[in-house]
Amino acid sequence: MYSKKVMEHFTKPKYFGKINNPDIVGRAGNPRCGDLLTLYLKIDKKTGEITGIKFETLGCAAAIAASDMICELAKGKTMEQALNITFQDVSSELGTLPPLKIHCAQLVTEALRDAINKFNSK
Amino acid sequence: MKNKKNSIKRNKKRGTYLDYAATTPIDAIVLKKMMPYLKNEYGNPSSLHLFGQKTRAAIEDAREKVARFLNCLPSEIIFTGSATESDNLAIRGLIKSLQRTKRTGEKIHIITTTIEHKAVLETCADLEKRGVKITYLPVGPDGIINLDDLKSEITPETDLVSIMYANNEVGSVQPIEKIGGIITEENKHKEHKIYFHTDAVQAANWLNCDVKELGVDLLTLSGHKIYGPKGIGVLYLKDKTPILPIITGGSHEWGLRPGTENVANIVGMGEAIGKIQSTKREIQNKIEKLRNKLIKNVLKINGARLNGTNEKEKRIVNIVNFSFMGVEGESLVISLSEEGIGVSTGSACTSHNLMPSHVIMAMGSSELMAHSSLRISLGKYTTDREIDYFLRVLPKIINKLRKISGR
Fold first, then answer.
1. What is the DSSP string of B124-148?
2. Which chain A residues have a beta carbon less than 8 Å from that of B368?
3. Phi and psi of B320, rounded to 5°?
4. Rounded to the nearest 5°, which phi and psi values hold at B110?
């Protein structure tokens, strides 16, 4: 059902966990679809670079893999660059998700944008 | 320590199958009996010559075995392609014939439950779009309907009551015999008869399926839940129950299920059903012990909850359903699969759907707990060692997924 890449990021995620004193927290998901996602970010205030990012995700294998992937994609980028990451980027980096699971990729980009928008409006 | 490692390796390689409610492995003897009809006995049962006569005889022999199991006449047995088809034929076929006799302005009314298998639920939902009135009876936290609810929903319009015998996700057993009694009583003074259908797919291995004692007019069975082949279903149809075919064609199965008979599968169905009675008690006792061990140990895990009842009379022995706080069901199933263990979230038929289990939700659970449900179903080949292995692996995976979810 899942590609090798999805299984890799699901079984051995690198970015799960909390960041103590994060600069910003982004959230997405709802209990109805069963996926709840939190992103913790550390931001370099001068350059706007995302220097640290971690996730906590309650969800299916695809949601966990997509969470790990968004962290990988966003780390080291400036917030401006990170805003350009699309769900297609996440999905194709994972070697495409099953059609029913595309919403997982949308969920993780939503959480990232939620974080960045919160930071910018602070 | 080395032994433990070896046993982990062995279990991982061979696979630990704990999903008997999804499907059962085929019994070796059943397969053996089927083989001639996949090889040399190829005659069309409708042919008049000797080739056809042989396969016709095999079908009628299987029909008798099924009839004996249900305590009915062989002429009341229809072979179909699946239990889903049987459910469709029962409901749609009956409604189709009743629609012809109903007077204008009169509505067809079906009473069913919120926890039926999709084969019944989606069929009712489809009929609802075509103007049939459907009443869905709720269930309690034990997954069982309240008989007073049923009584109060029966109206002069009611035509059909379709209630499953044992639930496929949590194993709860509906009081079919009592429901049959209520309907028989109602029918004494009703202008037109209420028909009673039950989907007995998950019940067949464990519960009394004597159609006379149950008081049912229609009953569904499946081959691949009783160690028989996939692609075979049975519909018991009480004599004189008005029904029309839902597909059209030749006169096979009394014209109610046109299409050349699947001889090998029918033979397999007969063999599989014939074996149930003689081995039932022994298997039940064995599984009861494994079940108790499973429940006792799984509930030791923090935040684990048993969905449904553990009261012996209210559930079948082989299905157990848990929810684990802070863990999502699908990721649990995939993680267990990586360790060689086959279990499922709700039912296999709903695993490609994003909605939380409609059964667990109907029992009053929150969405998050319904999303975290895990069904473990045991069978006659389940061993103590498999349960041990499962119990060793499960807590580790739950811990890991909770670390990821932060809950």
1. HHHHHHTT-EEEEE-B-TTS-B-HH
2. 31, 34, 36, 58
3. -130, 140
4. -115, 135
Q: Do B328 and A60 touch (CB under 8 A)?
A: yes
Mark which residues 368-387 of B lie under 8 Å from A by CB. 368, 371
At which residue do the structure tokens 């160690």 appear? B227
* pTM given for the model: 0.94
B2-27+279-405 CATH fold: Aspartate Aminotransferase, domain 1 (3.90.1150)
Q: How far apart are CA B62 and CA B55, in angstroms?
A: 11
Whether A33 has its CB under 8 Å from any CB of chain B: the answer is yes
Q: Give me the helix-helix angle, B329-338 and A4-11, nearest 10°.
A: 100
CB contacts, 8 Å: B353 with chain A: 100
Task: Please say if the pLDDT value at position B334 is more than 80.
Answer: yes
Contact B406 A31 (CB under 8 A): no
Q: Does A76 touch chain B (CB under 8 A)?
A: no
Residue A122 lies in a domain: no
| 3-class DSSP string for A57-82 | EECCHHHHHHHHHHHHHHCCCEHHHH
| Domain edges within chain B | 2-27+279-405, 28-274
Per the structure, the count of domains in chain A is: 1
Tens digit of pLDDT at every position of chain A (122 positions): 899 999 999 999 999 999 999 999 999 998 887 899 999 999 999 999 999 999 999 999 999 999 999 999 999 999 999 999 999 999 999 998 888 889 999 999 999 999 999 999 87
DSSP for residue B161: E
Report whether CATH 3.40.640.10 matches the domain B28-274.
yes
Q: Is there a contact between B234 and B269 (Cβ–Cβ < 8 Å)?
A: yes
C-alpha closest to that of B182 among B219, B146, B142: B146
- For residue A58, list chain B residues with Cβ-Cβ distance below 8 A: 326-328, 368, 405-407
Type of residue at A59: G
How far apart, in whole angstroms, are the C-alpha atoms of residue B347 and residue B224? 15
Q: Within a 13 Å sphere around the CA of B154, how many CA atoms are in the beta-carbon half?
A: 23
**Closest residue on chain A to B324 (Cα):** A58
| CB within 8 Å of B286: residues ≥ 6 apart | B380
Q: Point out the residue among A33, A61, A103 whose CB comes nearest to the CB of B334.
A: A61
CA distance B362 to B141: 8
Distance from CA of A47 to the nearest CA of B (A): 30
Q: Determine which helix (DSSP H) or strand (DSSP E) holds B336, and give its type and residue range.
A: helix B329-338
Question: CA–CA separation, B79 vs B85, rounded Å?
Answer: 10
How far from B192 is each of B99, B130, B150, CA to CA, in Å? 13, 22, 18
| HSE-up of residue B252 (Cα within 13 Å, Cβ side) | 20
Residue B209 is a catalytic residue: no
Give the integer Cα–Cα distance in Å for B206 and B165: 11
